């Protein structure tokens, strides 16, 4: 097993980028990255090697992020969901398209807020952490097939609502 210092050096940037994509605030992402590694350090003895180290760290980071939202009485409206919007909306070119994009972003936030936690977790881990379905399955303790089904159902929900509301 690598020393924890080597683990920190190797995975710091990926964990930071994952958390930055969630919160869109460099200082907050830095703080949450430090908290993620602190929690990883104190619970490293429980890491059983059933998944990749980054998958395990991303799972801890996700919990740190949701703990931050809860502690600060925030919801997913405060989360940066730009990546989700980019998945379902073409790039902005003019001011009208920019406003449409903002409307789509607001709708996506409302949809994600309203879907069950298991869908939200899979969407965040797949899009923000860029985890594979097998890694998501390990983190959430579900089968890889379930992770795929949940992701595609959540994606379908998003697309259907967006098509209905915005005629995409």
Q: Percentage of helical residues?
A: over 70%
The CATH superfamily name of the largest domain is: Winged helix-like DNA-binding domain superfamily/Winged helix DNA-binding domain
Order of helices and strands: HHHHHHHH
Total number of strands: 0
**Overall domain count:** 2
CATH architecture of the largest domain: Orthogonal Bundle
> Are there runs of 5+ residues with pLDDT below 50, and where?
87-93
Helix segment tally: 8
Question: How big a fraction of the residues is strand?
Answer: under 5%
Task: State the separation between the terminal residues, measured CA to CA.
Answer: 49 Å
Mean pLDDT: 79
Q: What form results from the Cα inertia axes?
A: globular
- The CATH topology name of the largest domain reads Arc Repressor Mutant, subunit A
- Rg, Cα atoms, Å: 17 Å
CATH class of the largest domain, named Mainly Alpha
Largest beta-sheet details = none
SSE diagram, text form:
Elements: H1 4-23, H2 26-42, H3 53-71, H4 82-88, H5 95-114, H6 117-127, H7 133-140, H8 144-166
Helix pairs in contact: 1-2, 1-3, 2-3, 5-8, 6-8, 7-8
């Amino acid at each position: 097993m690598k020393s924890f210092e080597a683990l920190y050096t190797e995975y710091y940037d990926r964990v930071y980028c994952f958390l930055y994509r969630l919160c869109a605030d460099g200082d907050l992402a830095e703080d949450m990255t430090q908290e993620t590694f602190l929690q990883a350090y104190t619970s490293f003895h429980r890491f059983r090697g059933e998944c990749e180290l980054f998958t395990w760290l991303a799972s801890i980071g996700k919990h740190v992020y949701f703990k931050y939202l809860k502690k600060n009485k925030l919801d997913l409206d405060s989360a940066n969901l730009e990546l989700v919007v980019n998945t379902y909306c073409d790039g902005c070119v003019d001011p009208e398209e920019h406003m449409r994009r903002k409307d789509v972003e607001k709708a996506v936030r409302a949809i994600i807020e309203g879907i069950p936690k298991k869908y939200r977790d899979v969407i965040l881990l797949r899009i923000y952490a860029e985890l594979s379905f097998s890694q998501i399955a390990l983190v959430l303790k579900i089968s890889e097939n379930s992770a795929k089904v949940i992701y595609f159902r959540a994606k379908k929900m998003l697309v259907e609502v967006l098509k209905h509301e915005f005629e995409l």
